[in-house]
User: Fold this.
Amino acid sequence: MGKREICRRPIEAYDFLARRSHLCGGVFSAALQAAGAELSGVVLEAHDGDTLTLANWQYTYRIRLVDIDAPELKQPYGRDAAASLFHMCVLKKATAETTGDDRYGRVLARVTCAGVDVNTEQVRRGWAWMFDRYAPKNSPLYGVQAEAKAAKRGLWADNQPVPPWEWRRMKAGNR
Assistant:
């Protein structure tokens, strides 16, 4: 039985889901997923505060939460952001409204786990910035972020939190 057949077999349990990703050599290519499609399945893993793995009966998808940017794992608050996403989503039913894919091949999507809009909730809890560079100018995330900042939630408890895009730029400059 080839790798392709293994990837397309019905899923019987979580254990098989985890092994299937490894057997298939990774996640299903985002290029095959059209923007505007709705994916549904179970979240297997939260890689960091803005990336997760969703699996359904056919495929495993690596999904980047659109319009937000969470601290990197090695950055202050990075592990907190990842833990927040983990507790909201892992081993829960989820749907993802796709908007395309990024340069790393991840599916860009707005994700709902157990009825919670995770993109918005990460910003509301103070574990992610709204990503000004990509978010629409009329995004409700501007207000959600302002509210989290005023309440000093999550990373906003820090007087001068460093946005992940600046942290990545500083790290790249040190190489």
Summary: The longest strand covers residues 38-46. The longest helix spans residues 78-89. Helices lie at 3-7, 14-23, 78-89, 118-124, 141-150, 164-173. The chain has one domain: 3-166.
